[in-house]
Amino acid sequence: MKLPQPLIEGRLVRRYKRFLADVELNDGTLVTAHTANTGSMQQCAEPGQVVLLSKSDNPKRKLAWSWELVQVNNFWVDINTHRANRVVEEALRSNVIPEFQDYTVRPEFPFAKSRIDFMLQGPSEKVLLEVKNVTLCCKPGVACFPDAVTTRGQKHLCDLMEAKQAGWRAVIFFLVQRGEAEAFTSADNIDVEYGRLLREAVSSGVEVLAYRTVVSHEENRVEQQIAVRL
User: Fold this and answer.
1) What is the DSSP letter of 62?
2) Which residues are within 8 A (CB) of 181 and not within 5 positions of it... i.e. 6 or more apart?
3) Helices 151-165 + 192-203 axis angle, to 10
4) C-alpha–C-alpha distance, residues 7 and 68, integer Å
5) Cα–Cα distances in Å, from 167 out to 33, 107, 161, 164?
6) What is the arithmetic mean of pLDDT over 125-129?
């Protein structure tokens, strides 16, 4: 999907209070940007990293600037978690993901006491698909999730297991934003319970897909599937 334009380059001074980041623009101006990411942002919020910001002209916004991308290991990483579902939705509707060719796409599907990111319907099946945004690498070339303990993520795995038992095809989709990643795994050293539940979900029939994105100044799009190692 296309990113906001233009994007303005700067260097991260600090990220704080979860949703705020101070950035020094290339002309020396210091600005505070909104950060649409609730995770720890390990490896993606180091002072001195090159970042790209967008600027809104909406007078009702408290902060005009938004942090969009950060450069890590010479790759651009999209840290805006609100965009992840839209990137996946665009890929689904464009038939970029081979597992779901020509499936209808319904976002925000109510199931049990939750809302699953997508309900997909094919010729002979219905699929519940939950998306997770991945910005961390646990080791060189291996992306991992989560980057902080996530009780919400744990609940989503339980929801998918419940859906599988109820006769749905259930899928968790890891959108890997690290361009160097060739494989995906669970971050057991960060959230051991999430890793346990993920392996339990797989044993119960929940499918795991990991797709890497390619991110530039102009766009973020799903590129290719990578290996899952649990």
Assistant:
1) S
2) 134, 137, 141, 142, 143, 212, 226
3) 10
4) 8
5) 44, 20, 10, 5
6) 97
The position carrying tokens 């991260």 is: 12
Quickly list DSSP for 1-45.
Answer: -BPPSS-EEEEEEEEETTTEEEEEETTS-EEEEEE---S--TTT-
State the amino acid at position 105 in one-letter form: V
The helix/strand/coil state of 203 is helix
Which is nearest to 54 in space by CA: 4, 12, 91?
A: 4
How far is residue 96 CA from its own chain's centroid? 17
User: Residues 31-77: pLDDT tens digits?
Assistant: 999 999 999 999 999 999 999 999 999 999 999 999 999 999 999 99
Ordered structural domains, the chain, with CATH: 8-78 (2.40.50.580), 81-228 (3.40.1350.60)
Q: How far apart are CA 182 and CA 178, in angstroms?
A: 9
Instruction: Report cis status (omega within 30 of 0) of the bond before 110.
Output: no
